[in-house]
Amino acid sequence: MGRGVGGSLAASPGVGAAPLGCRGCQRVSHSPARPWWGAGEGVPRRTRGLGPGLIVPGAPSPAFMFRLDASTCHQNLKVEELSVEWDAMGGKVQDIKAREKDGKGRTASPSPKRMPSARGGRDRFTAESYTVLGDTLIDGGDHYWEVRYDRDSKAFGVGVAYRTLGKFDQLGKTSSSWCVHLNNWLQVSFTAKHNNKAKVLDVPVPDCIGVYCNFHEGFLSFYNARTKQLLHTFKAKFTQPVLPAFMVWCGSFHVYSGLQVPSTVKCLQKRNSATSSSNASLT
């Protein structure tokens, strides 16, 4: 089951090395559309306001509801509810404000104490990680969520990671993170990444990706959310709870949480589990 993070929420960094100082990048506005999975499934399409214990008639498990942890996201990522937008000036604005605050000295009234973040007060992601995490741990059961990204994004990644990842780490470049990564910078590539190993995915790149995670069986699968084509499956042995993890560089994306596992995906996963697909090669 997914559960809220109470202790230290570690870093699951971004993906694919992306050069700093993205010159010429413009902030991209992305208007989220409805998730593709709901058609014909008899399941609500709504993604906001769903409690974590929501039970949909005919569905064996509750929907997985999570939000994004804005308090620990990379300073160049602007998080609004479930939407994330690259902001090239994000870090510079924060640095300027910090310098101005140091120059003014203390005021008569003390500033309010900052609430500890889900990662236990650790620093937010930095350098080339460009990462933001979900705020709900997965420590059992099977769960599904979708993410739609802007096609003009120079780099985008989605997957899961342990909460113990460092703030500098990039998603898929450590033994504690798994993802699929799209690189549109200089040379286009679509890869599955884990432990600094990459496998090129010879499939059409969708603009909306479904993520399926079965914690106990160790399956992490990625689907074309529209067609339900399987993109890649990792077969892992998770030794601690994982968090939904995302990265974007010079682009934007929108997350759909509160979704049931689509029946099509469940059928495909049963087949995948029975055949122990060779697709899961980066564990």
TrEMBL record:
Residues 64-264 form the B30.2/SPRY domain. Residues 97-121 are annotated as: Disordered. One of its GO terms (cellular component) is microtubule. It comes from the Eukaryota. SMART domains: SPRY. Pfam families: SPRY. One of its GO terms (molecular function) is microtubule binding. GO terms for biological process: regulation of cell division; regulation of mitotic spindle organization. Signal peptide: none annotated. This is Fibronectin type III and SPRY domain containing 1. It comes from Terrapene triunguis (Three-toed box turtle). The lineage of its organism: Eukaryota, Metazoa, Chordata, Craniata, Vertebrata. The gene is FSD1.
